[in-house]
Amino acid sequence: MSRIIAVTNQKGGVGKTTTAINVAAALALAGQRVLLVDVDPQGNATSGVGLKNQAGPLGTVYQALTGDEAQDPDGFLLQSSIDGLMVAPADRNLTGAELELIALPNRERRLADFLAPLRDRFDVIVIDCPPSLGLLTLNALVAADTVLIPLHCEYFALEGLADLVATMRRVRAALNPALDIEGVLLTMYDERTNLGQQVAADVRAFFKEKVYDTVIPRNIRLGEAPSHGLPAVTYDPRSRGAEAYTALAHEILARHVAD
Amino acid sequence: MSRIIAVTNQKGGVGKTTTAINVAAALALAGQRVLLVDVDPQGNATSGVGLKNQAGPLGTVYQALTGDEAQDPDGFLLQSSIDGLMVAPADRNLTGAELELIALPNRERRLADFLAPLRDRFDVIVIDCPPSLGLLTLNALVAADTVLIPLHCEYFALEGLADLVATMRRVRAALNPALDIEGVLLTMYDERTNLGQQVAADVRAFFKEKVYDTVIPRNIRLGEAPSHGLPAVTYDPRSRGAEAYTALAHEILARHVAD
Ligand SMILES: Nc1ncnc2c1ncn2[C@@H]1O[C@H](COP(=O)(O)OP(=O)(O)OP(=O)(O)O)[C@@H](O)[C@H]1O
Ligand SMILES: Nc1ncnc2c1ncn2[C@@H]1O[C@H](COP(=O)(O)OP(=O)(O)OP(=O)(O)O)[C@@H](O)[C@H]1O
Ligand SMILES: [Mg+2]
Ligand SMILES: [Mg+2]
After folding, report:
1. In chain B, what residues touch A22 (CB-CB under 8 Å)?
2. How far is B256 from chain A (nearest CA, A)?
3. Residue A37's beta-bridge partner residues?
4. A159 chain-B contacts, CB cut-off 8 A
5. Which of A219, B35, B75, B229 shows a CA-CA span of 20 to 30 A to B258?
């Protein structure tokens, strides 16, 4: 079922990295062969799985995107601490990549070209995106089959959805006709507040069955896990946050079986 | 005391916009002449003060940055609902501005040139930045006298500080020698968690007296206010969030008197 899923939302701090790490790890724990690709210059997904400042034999995602196209993709992958989970790490050189990519041929497809030969070795490839709609996110939208959209149930997060949906429409028209929504995930959900309930109702009305049944509650263990270099699903598997991401991974798998 | 303060941190969702809006509004309510400049393509600061989809007679920040340099800056300003607070609104065209600015002369100084003639009409100019270290944030760092860094007391937010400080050092060396730190603001602080206390202790050890005494607690009214198009300091002035931002505005003023 080799599938490339871009985890994206240009609104900052909505749980993209936390979702990418924990979905990738939970799918690996469920027996899938998973690759986590970090295209965010902040490198939070890389450090969140304990690989901060590490690179493959040929380098990081930065070299994979800006270097010679004939490189062996294996040279950019690292084994994580979890069986079945490999990682293509980021480094802060990616900050400059947006400017460098502009001058390169094929600038929107460089990530798609890098991942193409890896497709048959992984069941799922998860891409963590930066909080913007620039060339790095564009590369992820061109490479991906589907987009998983984490959404913090607050007003500003709702506002940004229209921009994201419009960008996806433009990518579909010009660069990646098959791009679809994998799902919309409500994160840091606090059912006690009116705001949370209102935004959740608006999102379900707009995206309908694309909204996952699984909702991620606010849970401090999700905030603590990265400082230990571990996904929450291995750092504290019985926490509410870890259990929610494990349920989400199973919901994602069940949706594909139904396909 | 005309001062240009860039509110920036490339980490997403740490409270940049909430801080920019409420500091600008609280300073205006304290009798200062304030301009709030929105250079984030998301336009959250613009909608957070009730000016969504509005533009000045000559346009928005997008036109001010990419258009002809001889334009009258007044043509890009709007009056907010608060006496003493003017706004230079953003629009989503700014998403493309990063690519367009690259080809323009003076590309890092276009915001500085736009704000220069406005300096003597305002006591404080507050710039809300996007969650990245691209050309829009670079323009803000070149235009600013100081940087106000909102920091969410969590692991990933701490990680990004090194990149921000390194970028400021590069800007100081090449483009804006006087750039200094206005202050570091602890936001969404929850003193009940170990993580919050640990990160706060690390930040105070590193930034010392630059860290504001005022700390912003997590407070739902700060999340609700933008959906009413009002800063929290006018939407619900007695809320813990509004009182904290009012205290912060007075701490900022007191620090300048001491200069
Ligand atoms: N459900 C949750 N409960 C509690 N804390 C969470 C939850 N999800 C994420 N966090 C914390 O909130 C912060 C923001 O999450 P995260 O970094 O995953 O968001 P992001 O969308 O990737 O941010 P950016 O836009 O900067 O890439 C992090 O410190 C993370 O640890
Ligand atoms: N102290 C607080 N208590 C509760 N909610 C808050 C607080 N500060 C900000 N928020 C809410 O958290 C979310 C993130 O804040 P905000 O949008 O200001 O961050 P930002 O750094 O500007 O994000 P971005 O990186 O996307 O520009 C918003 O929904 C906001 O309403
Ligand atoms: Mg992230
Ligand atoms: Mg913002």
Report:
1. none
2. 31
3. A88, A127
4. 42-44, 47, 52
5. B35
**Beta-carbon count within 10 A of B116 CB:** 13
Q: What percent of chain B has pLDDT over 90?
A: 86
B70: phi then psi, degrees, rounded to nearest 5: -90, 15
Contact B102 A102 (CB under 8 A): yes
Q: Is A159 on the interface with B (CB under 8 A)?
A: yes
Pocket of ligand 1 (CB under 6 A): A 12-18, 40, 44, 131, 187-188, 216, 218-219, 222-223, 226, 241; B 11-13, 131, 154, 156
Question: Nearest C-alpha of chain A: how many angstroms from B3?
Answer: 27
Please check whether residue A14 is in contact with residue B12, taking contact to mean a CB–CB distance below 8 angstroms: yes
Chain segment B224-252, per-residue pLDDT in tens: 999 999 999 999 999 999 999 999 999 99
Indicate the SS3 state at residue A250.
helix
- Report how many Cβ contacts below 8 Å link chain A to chain B: 104
Which residue owns the Cα nearest ligand 1 atom 30? A223
Would you state the pLDDT for residue B1? 56
Average pLDDT per block of 10 residues along chain A, 259 residues long = 92 97 98 98 97 96 90 95 97 89 92 96 97 95 98 89 93 96 95 90 94 96 96 98 98 85
B183 touches chain A (CB under 8 A): no
**Separation of B121 CA from ligand 3 center, angstroms?**
39
Interface check A53 vs B, CB under 8 A: no
pLDDT greater than 90 at residue B257: no
Averaged pLDDT, B5-31: 97
Q: How far is the CA of B224 from the centre of ligand 1 (A)?
A: 20
pLDDT of the residue at B69: 75
Q: Note the pLDDT of residue A1.
A: 56
* Beta-ladder partners of A183: A148
Torsion on CA atoms B229, B231, B232, B238, rounded to nearest 10 = -120
B155/A223 Cβ within 8 A: yes
Q: How far apart are alpha carbons A37 and A110 in whole angstroms?
A: 13
